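Re: export button greyed out
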Amino acid sequence: MTSEAGRWAIGLDLGGSAVKSGLVAADGSIAVFERTPIDRRAGADHLLAALLNQIERLRAAAAERGFEPVGIGVGSPGSIERATGRIHKSPNFAGWTGYPLRDELVRNTELPVYLANDVNAAALGELKFGAGEDYENFIMITLGTGVGGALVIGGRLYDGAEGFAGEIGHMMIDPEGPECPCGNRGCLEQLVGASAMVDRARALLAGSDADGPLAAVPEEELTPEIIGEAAADGDPVGRMVLAESGRWLGLAFITLINVLDPDCILVGGGIAQAGPPLFDAIRQTVGNHAMSGTARIVPIVLAALGTRAGTAGAGALALWPELSCES
Amino acid sequence: MTSEAGRWAIGLDLGGSAVKSGLVAADGSIAVFERTPIDRRAGADHLLAALLNQIERLRAAAAERGFEPVGIGVGSPGSIERATGRIHKSPNFAGWTGYPLRDELVRNTELPVYLANDVNAAALGELKFGAGEDYENFIMITLGTGVGGALVIGGRLYDGAEGFAGEIGHMMIDPEGPECPCGNRGCLEQLVGASAMVDRARALLAGSDADGPLAAVPEEELTPEIIGEAAADGDPVGRMVLAESGRWLGLAFITLINVLDPDCILVGGGIAQAGPPLFDAIRQTVGNHAMSGTARIVPIVLAALGTRAGTAGAGALALWPELSCES
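Workaround output, generated via the alternate export path:
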């Protein structure tokens, strides 16, 4: 199986609570996809073992199908040091900062290993198999606990001079806004991240006699996903929260459009699933303020691959290493 | 003369009050540089004639030296339609929007013609011959009446999906800021452009018993350049105006650094000549707030070529067309 269609790679997407893994084919199909829980506080040995377990499982599955994967792609939280294949910084994963992930995986598997930041991997998945397939230049933003971003320029990942590009969550959006642990004030992540959404919902619920579905949720159980689902079902407080998030996102997108003039902006992550209550507010803000000079509306599109984007993109990285910023 | 060192091009930089032109060599030297006044309100025929006059003069100068220029590069205000070589939009130049500049120049000169937006041309000049020579990825910002920008990515100009990238003056910096003709609010250009600086100086001078050099300047004669010179000479009002501009620019640079992770940011244009009173404030703002994740300080550097950057870059465009975004 040497034709393009017959090439497969192992794709691993390391997330905050699980590793999602599968055999990724050159047509984007994923075989034996699996989500395996991990404990991000348990240290690097635990994380490496979890990844190696999945690799072993996938190699066995590949052997059953009569082929050898061309390599291993991994999307990991944190930034990746290009030259060394170490995790540069990943504050939320115990023992992960500085970990020589590429060397450890190569030593244990003797396969080619390719690493990318997790959002970059997801963007690569969308580029090859998803909502970015028709575009050369796009921005991807992921809305979850935090706000992640990635840039595709000229049909390849662009990760900047030292691998840190795409930190859309740390765009300065409001000079009077809340402080951010990064040292700045008014970062997008502080305005639309999970904490901001939950705080906004609590404030709205406390100050009103709202009787939508959200009012029935115990305060400590509120999550962005629950708020998003309620908004999609028409809950008025949920809609107000997403409209506010959409307005801040729209202001950030205006800057991104005016600086980067992308073909489109893809929005992924759990909160993006809320759909129209969020996207309508984004598009309204951008539409009201887009520079007339561009004479066009940049499409703002829901990412297509959902929770499989990272795995698909990690596989794509191993199938087409030239798409990364390293080559 | 076919060796790299012996190649020359005609470089033309069309500005608001003059066309700056010269013979640009592959080593960056400019022969017979000249600044010829134009009237930007006089229409496209006037502008074309001014450009053709300069081209004729430079071809004669080249013939005297015994060579033929390899082509003509032009930096022009407004965005350029890549496919057609028309000026897409240039609201401050009468008759310029929609003008088929490339076709007219080719028809009249029978030389290869390459067009770029004026700030893109200046960035190309800095990339090949100036402060950007050592960098693959940088952002250039020009501070004059307005605020212009250009992006160099992977050693080439990046102008986006449709040629409009680099509109740094229309980054949204303050959601409560002044309205901008572009339709947005709080654009960087509204906060640090010429009008903002002059208004700020007037307000400070009116509300104080300042007795620095600026206090002696008639109010209606205040310009950003005069304010910048006064600040460089230690005038307290001038310094306050530039410190405020530097703070806004620093906030914009934080976003640019976090999104694009550039090798450096080059600052050009007349106001940049003010030097330390401006750059200190920029660097202080960025230094206080840069993401700790990047673990480095992105250099913020005065552009090197001054008023010759556009001419040099226009020549570079004709010498190395592959540096543009079109190829």
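The radius of gyration of chain B is 20 Å. The button fix ships in the next patch.
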